[in-house]
Amino acid sequence: MPDADNATYQNSFNKLQQYLAEIEHEGKTIFFKEHGFMMLDPGVFTTEFPPSDSRPQRPCPKVVDQTAHDSGKDGDSISGSDIVQKTNPSVLPDTFIRTLSPIIQIRHPAISIPSYYRTKALSDMFSLDYLAGTSYAWSRITFDWFCEHVYTHRKDTPRENISWPLVVDGDDLVNDNERVISAICSLAELDMNGIIKAWDPTSEEIKKKQPEMLQRFMSTLQASTGIIKSGRKVEDISVDKEAEKWIEEFGSEVANRLKETVEATMDHYLYLAQFRI
Fold first, then answer.
1. Average pLDDT over residues 82-89
2. C-alpha pair distances (Å), 266 with each of 102, 104, 159
């Protein structure tokens, strides 16, 4: 992690580029994960959450792909004016985003949103930060961008024909693990033999060194010794039935707020779910 004085988008991106070059030089494939809304262009964010006095419109940070500038990818040199022409919904340059093989992970909002609420990660669990963090709008926008600019035949591809960008539902991943992982590895040309299906739980010594919030987020994973099947079928999840459980667990007021939050992003989830593996 860069120190606070150098923690700019550009410096962090340069470090990522350097790391990628080192890994590729070793003949390896890098697999990395990020919360999409944390890399979001502020202008895209305001399409769902308009600016206000407390949250004014901010310009998109200017991040330059130095490797494209140096090598002149696609036969053209990259100049400062190319930054303005960025089309993807993140803060990162198109030249970099186009090189990615994206996997978009989703989970039914009636399961993921109350799970996030239980972590108590924010002082106000129904703040704008919470709503932004639980919305699938950003995943949908990202999926559509890749379909329009990179994988242009994706939306016409039958679901059984696996293609980029991949959409993976969390319940499918744990309940139908062999099929989903096999599909991902096949498309990404990864060796299935490298998949770990059993592990030791995280020791108390390690957990004591972790922030309390991280422990809450990771509690199930850190206590596990392998894949835990949820036993749920995505198609069988009912928002109304889950809401009845929230009333018992959190009370009516919180349950109603959770249901509103779930319903606000359901259209985005269902849109993406039609493309899932």
1. 74
2. 22, 16, 20
